[in-house]
Design goal:
alpha/beta; eight-stranded mixed beta sheet; 14% strand
Length: 419
């Protein structure tokens, strides 16, 4: 089939490459011309897709990156994988609308359009379908097929990839569901049919709401445990020995990435805007997780005052990690970045090191810690924010004057505190 994937980011590029590898002819539509040029040259900016995989599908003519809407012509299946960010703390569906308008012009009878972008229930039916019908002059469910299949990409996860992660599929009609499932059966090992579009949309935002709420719970638990003088990390290890009724979540500097800080807001905002009801647990979890970077800064501030009788202002701080999770360069909504920004706003001299990011973005690929000739001991304090495997934690423990470990990966010691 001729597959068009609109948006070539963390979600769209893996899908496009996988579809090309299994035998489809794929157009990767990317309006960003710089990104498009990189893809055409065989250079991947998405870590889950190595240059070798990209170059292989380019070399076989199975994949083509384009910023020209005319290359969407004649598609059998088009998948929309564009961002759905927050603007002024409210859902922003402008990219979905733009993609729908661009795509509508090229819909032919019998074609299938699938939305993968995370959003609130009702988006596919109430937002996307009218745009497609208006622009094409065709009727969804009769002349062409429409579906929703939520993305479940976890950047940097080598165990659960696109092809072996169960894929929820939904359709506007039974016929639409059949066509959507037919496509995804070719690129994933397991498809899970949903009874309706809204159920599939709600399942996606709930998956991340579940994680968001439980992370907020352990973040608040860590604060209370610190006040009580109890080791929260050992407490969680003990609780995790229960073989039923408990799932282990860990505290940290906050939540980041393309899902947790955003997806639950889509659900709570939609419920309030459409029905005037407040999803209280989501809003409380949002408050806790958004305040976690401030809590990390306060803990560091207290430690500097208590241990060295000095303020954050003028202190040299080494911040390890800028990505929101280890093993990736994804710094979207990263709490590590927020911590560094807050420390700088208080007058600290902050050096951020992340082996997955270029130096221009606060990263460092060659030097384990610090910049230039600096050593760990040259800093007043170290805050470990993202525990990349490249960080030498043994050296860190031996050389640092003080470490605040926000991820609980280092053994507690007189000069090492865990969050």
């Amino acid at each position: 089939m001729h597959i068009c994937v609109l948006g070539q980011g963390y979600v769209g590029l893996p899908l496009a490459v996988r579809a090309a590898e299994v035998g489809h002819t794929v157009t990767g539509y990317e309006p960003d011309r710089a990104r498009c040029a990189a893809l055409a040259a065989g250079s991947s900016y998405v870590e889950d897709i190595g240059d070798d995989r990209l170059q292989a599908v380019l070399g076989s003519d199975a994949y083509y990156a384009s910023s020209d809407p005319q290359d969407l012509k004649g598609f059998d299946v088009a998948v929309i994988t564009v961002p759905t960010p927050l603007t002024d703390r409210a859902p922003d569906l402008s990219c979905v609308r733009d993609a729908g308008r661009v795509l509508a012009e090229w819909i032919e009878p019998g074609a299938t359009v699938v939305l993968e972008s995370t959003t609130h229930p009702g988006t596919t039916r109430d937002v996307l379908v009218p745009l497609l019908e208006e622009g094409s002059g065709l009727v969804a469910g009769r002349d062409f097929h429409v579906g929703f299949s939520p993305e479940r990409i976890d950047p940097g996860n080598a165990d659960w990839r696109l092809e072996n992660t169960p894929k929820i599929v939904a359709g506007l009609t039974e016929g639409c569901l059949e066509r959507v499932k037919e496509f995804y059966d070719t690129v994933t090992d397991v498809t899970v049919p949903a009874s309706g579009l809204e159920e599939a949309e709600l399942a996606k935002v709930f998956e991340n709401t579940y994680r968001h709420v439980n992370i907020a719970l352990v973040n608040e638990l860590s604060r209370m445990a610190h006040t009580l003088g109890v080791d929260v990390w050992h407490t969680l290890e003990l609780a995790a020995t229960k073989p039923f009724g408990f799932t282990k979540f860990l505290p940290g500097p906050g939540v980041g990435g393309h899902c947790l800080p955003i997806d639950p807001v889509y659900l709570s905002h939609h419920v309030k805007a459409r029905h005037g009801q407040t999803f209280r647990l989501i809003e409380l979890a949002q408050d806790i997780n958004e305040s976690q970077p401030d809590y990390v800064v306060r803990r560091l501030q207290d430690a500097l005052s208590r241990r060295f009788r000095r303020s954050v202002h003028g202190a040299r701080v080494l911040a390890l990690g800028a990505a929101y999770k280890p093993g990736t360069s994804d710094a979207r909504q990263s709490p590590a970045v927020e911590v560094a920004d807050r420390l700088r706003a208080m007058g600290a001299d902050v050096t951020v090191v992340d082996p997955y990011l270029p130096v221009s973005d606060g990263g460092c690929r060659d030097i384990p810690f610090g910049a230039g000739t600096d050593t760990v001991g040259d800093f007043d304090a170290v805050v470990l924010l993202t525990p990349h495997g490249e960080f030498d934690l043994v050296r860190l423990a031996a050389e640092a004057a003080y470490v605040l470990d926000t991820r609980g990966v280092m053994a507690a010691a007189p000069h090492i505190e865990r969050l």
